[in-house]
């Protein structure tokens, strides 16, 4: 029963546009009423009606250790008593920066911000300031937050809501954003050739997670890296999703690809609003007050956000076995889903890397936005609701990756696989 959620959703729509503070939460593509959450612990969400769900969103990634992870809660409580913000530097920010630098490759300096959007927006401005060039190449279906430059074919929430062009973004901004298909190196080469000497940056999700989970094909990222080196283009790897999730050093470490600038969010804040961008000193020193590319934030490096992030990252750094455990759990889920999907008999594709996984009802490989969008997403929506009814909380869109947290037990995974079996039968032939 979700009576209270229904009531809250009605009430929310009176004072909040669409009843939510971020669009995908509204369940618009899957239909129905969004679940209003009261609390969460470990791998479980509890809604306003007291129903329990096994959580495969993990706050869209950050809660990699599980909800209300005790050391994080304790640290927040301790630091909150010292005041929640100063607007002046703290030693904690240095410790956070040093910890990040000790975990991720190719980052000499890092600047903290308050969201992944800010991180990507600032990294692009820096790339433009550093190169003196204006254009940026992004990939269809890749999401880099909601800054103007990136809201062109941006996957995820926009794909879910079928928004093609965004009112409010000027033509002047969108002409500087060039779009290529993910995993199509030739398209990128062509764009660079057509815009010789004008491209400041190429930005990408090294492993795409905003059109479901889509892996880079062999040689693609290497080819992009080489092209950037040849053309003096700044390669920005958006690790907001993959950073500290795929490995302590993120996709850069796991895939062995070097970024010039890298952006973080999600896991980096341990559930608090944190983002960051960093890279080589040669580029980072152009940021104010060292250089004159301006970037600032009243609450940047906020002590409560820093201690939550620091505690999360330190736990991950000190316990690298967590990544192995997460991957084993995700692979177990993958195998279990494979079995019930095969028995069900309709076409499907599961993509997985580490603790990121997604299911497309597709009869062809899902390697870019076009193939993700041509999957049977109506079937996904039905599957989503059938799972939700059985207490399994999947992302409410086929264009989102599922994120596992390490609080998930094998019993939870078994329950999920069992629920999938029943849900598939209920999903039928839509
Ligand atoms: C979530 C996300 C962002 C935006 O981060 P916010 O904190 O929501 O602003 C940027 N890039 C990627 C890859 C993301 O997944």
Keywords:
2 domains; 14 strands; binds pyridoxal-5'-phosphate; Aspartate Aminotransferase, domain 2; four-stranded mixed β-sheet; Aspartate Aminotransferase, domain 1; 430 residues; alpha/beta
Could you explain the architecture of this structure?
This protein has 430 residues and is an alpha/beta fold. The protein folds into 2 domains: 4-68 and 320-427, Aspartate Aminotransferase, domain 1 (Alpha-Beta Complex); 70-318, Type I PLP-dependent aspartate aminotransferase-like (Major domain) (Aspartate Aminotransferase, domain 2, 3-Layer(aba) Sandwich), CATH 3.40.640.10. Helix content is 40%, strand content 14%. It contains 15 helices and 14 strands. The chain has helices at residues 3-15, 70-80, 91-103, 116-131, 156-160, 171-174, 185-194, 220-231, 250-255, 281-284, 303-318, 321-344, 369-373, 377-389, 410-427, and strands spanning 37-41, 44-47, 52-55, 109-113, 135-139, 177-180, 199-204, 234-238, 261-264, 275-279, 349-353, 356-360, 392-393, 402-403. A 7-stranded mixed sheet has the order 4-10-9-8-7-5-6, with helices on both faces. The chain has a 4-stranded mixed sheet with strand order 1-2-3-13. A hairpin with a 2-residue loop joins strand 11 and strand 12 (356-360). Helix 7 (185-194) runs parallel beside helix 8 and helix 14 (377-389) crosses helix 15 (410-427). The longest helix is centred in the C-terminal third of the chain and has 24 residues, at 321-344. The protein is globular and about 55 Å long. The two termini are 25 Å apart. The mean pLDDT is 95. Bound molecules: pyridoxal-5'-phosphate. Pyridoxal-5'-phosphate (PLP) is lined by residues 115-117, 120, 143-145, 205, 209-210, 238, 240-241, 265, 275.
């Amino acid at each position: 029963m979700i009576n209270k959620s229904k009531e809250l959703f009605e009430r929310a729509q009176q004072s909040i546009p669409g009843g939510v503070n971020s669009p995908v939460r509204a369940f618009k593509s899957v239909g129905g009423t969004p679940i209003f959450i009261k609390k969460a612990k470990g791998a479980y969400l509890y809604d306003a009606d007291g129903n329990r769900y096994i959580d495969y969103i993990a706050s869209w990634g950050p809660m990699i250790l599980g909800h209300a992870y005790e050391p994080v809660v304790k640290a927040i409580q301790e630091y909150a008593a010292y005041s929640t913000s100063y607007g002046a530097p703290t030693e904690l920010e240095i410790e956070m920066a040093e910890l990040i630098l000790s975990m991720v490759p190719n980052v000499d300096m890092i600047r903290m911000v308050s969201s992944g959007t800010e991180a990507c927006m600032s990294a692009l401005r820096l790339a433009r300031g550093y190169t003196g060039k204006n254009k940026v190449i992004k990939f269809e279906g890749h999401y880099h937050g909601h800054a103007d430059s990136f809201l062109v074919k941006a996957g995820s929430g926009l794909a879910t809501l079928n928004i093609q062009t965004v009112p409010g973004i000027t033509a002047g901004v969108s002409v500087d954003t060039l779009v290529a298909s993910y995993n199509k190196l030739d398209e990128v080469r062509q764009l660079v050739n057509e815009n010789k000497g004008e491209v400041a940056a190429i930005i990408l999700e090294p492993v795409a997670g905003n059109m479901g989970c889509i892996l880079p094909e062999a040689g693609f990222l290497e080819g992009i890296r080489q092209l950037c080196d040849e053309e003096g283009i700044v390669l920005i790897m958006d690790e907001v999703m993959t950073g500290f999730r795929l490995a302590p050093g993120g996709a850069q470490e796991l895939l062995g690809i070097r970024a010039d600038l890298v952006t973080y969010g999600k896991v980096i804040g341990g559930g608090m609003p944190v983002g960051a961008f960093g890279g080589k000193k040669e580029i980072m020193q152009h940021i104010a007050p060292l250089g004159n590319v301006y970037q600032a934030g009243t609450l940047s490096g906020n002590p409560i956000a820093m201690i939550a992030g620091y505690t999360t990252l330190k736990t991950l750094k000190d316990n690298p076995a967590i990544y192995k455990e997460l991957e084993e759990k995700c692979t177990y889920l993958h195998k279990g889903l494979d079995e019930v999907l095969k028995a069900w008999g309709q076409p499907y594709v599961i993509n997985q890397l580490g603790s990121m996984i997604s299911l497309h009802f597709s009869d062809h490989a899902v390697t870019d936005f076009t193939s993700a969008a041509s999957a049977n997403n109506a079937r996904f929506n039905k599957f989503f609701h059938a799972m939700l009814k059985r207490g399994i909380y999947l992302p409410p869109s086929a264009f989102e990756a599922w994120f596992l947290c390490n609080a998930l037990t094998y019993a939870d995974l078994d329950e999920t696989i069992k629920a999938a079996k029943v849900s598939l039968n209920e999903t039928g032939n839509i």
